[in-house]
Amino acid sequence: MRRQRRTMMITAIIGILIYSFCLFILSQFVKQDQISHLAALKNDYQVLKKDSHSRSLASWADDHQLTIVTDSNHPRTIRQQQVHDALHQNQLDNTNPYHLQYFRGKRYLLYLLDSTSANQQRVMVKHYQSVWQHSNLCGIFSAVYLVLWLVVLTIQYLTYRQQRRYLAAIIQKLQQIKDNEQTDSLIAKDNTPYTTLIKLVNELDQDHRHQLAANSVLKRRFQSLMGHLPVGVMLLDEDGNVLLHNQMLAIMLGRQISEEKHPFVDDIQTYALSQMIEGTLRENRNHRRNIQLYGDSDRYVDANVIRIAHSEEDLKQQVIVILYDLTNIYQLEQQRLSFINNISEKLQPSVIEIAEEAEELLQEKQFQNVSSLENIKNQAHNLEELLEDTIALNKLDQEENLLPDHVNTADLIHTALTKQQSGIKKLDLQVQKQINGNKWVSSYQRELEQIIQNLISNAVKYNRPHGTVSITLDHNEVENYLNITVEDSGIGIAATEQKRIFERFYQVDPKQNQGTGLGLAIVEEAAQTLNGTVKLTSKLHEGTKVKVHLPL
Asked: Which residues form the Histidine kinase domain (predicted)?
């Protein structure tokens, strides 16, 4: 609207400028007409001068409203002074016989007639009539010009008003399309500047209707699919608000879930699952764990929290939570684990007793075949270690979602080193330990204990004589994470073997008869339980470095 007003204002200014220019041209025509009229009167004067006396010339001059002035060196009247100045200032001569002169606020047209003597010249003096004094001519021109320009402004205004109507209709239709409202097609004349735009808007409206219909069908199919899925599904935005869910998820959680957008913490009461979701939102990393859902359902599920993004540059992301019901499988698994645990616990005292008996017999030195007895003792120790690792894995598999403990990491390191003291002395190892930050952390003690014990045990067991073991704990209380790094100068692991070292019971060199092949499997299981990661770097014959990152 402002632009249209500004355009009309510019049009009016241009009209005024054109009007002024036309008046200037018209004034030039009026001036030239009066000069031409004086030139004709000069010819009449020359004729009358020969045949008439001075009284007739005076009468003729009065009839044409002009004055004939003779130049004098001593002008007596105002007109003589006026003529005398014009002649002696070379404003009038034979080459330029006319001159327009202002005198006392009025304009006079002077025209040179002839010379009465060598020094006397005659000049016609006539009052100059400007274009405004020709009232009829000026009035007719102004009226015609004003009418024409008013017609132009009226046409412009009507055109703008019609354009505003088209724009208002187009804006209203686009707003209706945005609001998914039913709209009617726009109709416009073929000669308007908005015809192409209106056709495109109508086509956009039709495409939008088809898209809405297709989306409606897809939405019904998706809702039907979500309703029949045997797994629980929840979709979250980048702020952790629930965008959609299916009925199976509500059944698994044992809660009525609102259809409105709301924080996920209103529905999920299980601490472990909440930590998985928070970790994915914060670290952009997927998580998967078998957990028990607390609440009205008490189900065991395989929980997957997955980050969804179109590209790495996307700042906005979505997170999908998928829960597989493992309650029946978990019950069977618990029976299997209980069976293995019972056997392990019953075998463990017998194996310990065999090892102790073999140690006593070796000390008494009553047997000649000492190597066989030594082998019995070593095998008993290996079996004891295997049973301990099996029991530890069973406990990790039977993990319950309790609240985290307040754990002293320095004590865990000290306990693990105490257990490995004999191996450290045997290989004469140098142990370096460093704790950065607060030694107290909020986590699960059983998992942390298994991670630290197995990492230190491997660093001692597979080290070289006179080697080193470096233990570093970094507790970052600002970003709230714990890094556990154990590095040794041992035999190392070949690059071809590093892909399988986290498999249960896998040993790089079974002939060495060291370990059970469960140590790193226990470390990875415990780290995954804490939503952490394990990274191993190793070079053959140079040593191994294992770093465990745990969000707290």
From this structure: 342-552
**Model-level pTM?**
0.41
Query: What's the pLDDT tens digit per position in 277-302?
Result: 988 888 778 888 888 887 666 788 88
Beta bridge partners of 436: 474
Tokens standing for residue 162? 């019609």
Within 10 angstroms of residue 323's Cβ, the number of other Cβ atoms is: 22
Instruction: Report the side by side order of strands in the sheet with 543-551.
Output: 430-436, 468-476, 481-488, 543-551, 533-539
One CATH from 3.40.50.300, 3.20.20.70, 3.30.450.20, 3.40.50.620 for 222-326: 3.30.450.20
Superfamily of structural domain 403-551: Histidine kinase-like ATPase, C-terminal domain (3.30.565.10)
Domain with CATH 3.30.565.10 in the chain: 403-551
Q: Are 458 and 419 in contact (CB under 8 A)?
A: no
Contact 305, 290 (CB under 8 A): no
- Tell me the per-residue pLDDT of 467-486, one tens digit each, with 9 for 90 and over: 999 999 999 988 889 999 99
HEC per residue, 206-254: HHHHHHHHHHHHHHHHHHHHHHHCCCEEEEECCCCEEEEECHHHHHHHC
Query: Order of strands, edge to edge, in the sheet holding 98-103?
Result: 66-70, 121-127, 106-115, 98-103
**Where does the chain hold its CATH 3.30.450.20 domain(s)?**
222-326
* Residue 268 DSSP code: -
Q: What is the torsional sign of CA 90, 95, 97, 103?
A: negative
Give the pLDDT confidence of 54-84 residue by residue, as tens digits: 677 777 777 777 888 777 777 777 777 777 7
For 10, the token pair is 């510019």
For 194, the token pair is: 């908005």
Are 60 and 44 a contacting pair, CB within 8 Å?
Answer: yes
CA 494 to each of CA 405, 434, 509, 536: distance values in angstroms, whole numbers, following the listed order:
38, 28, 11, 12
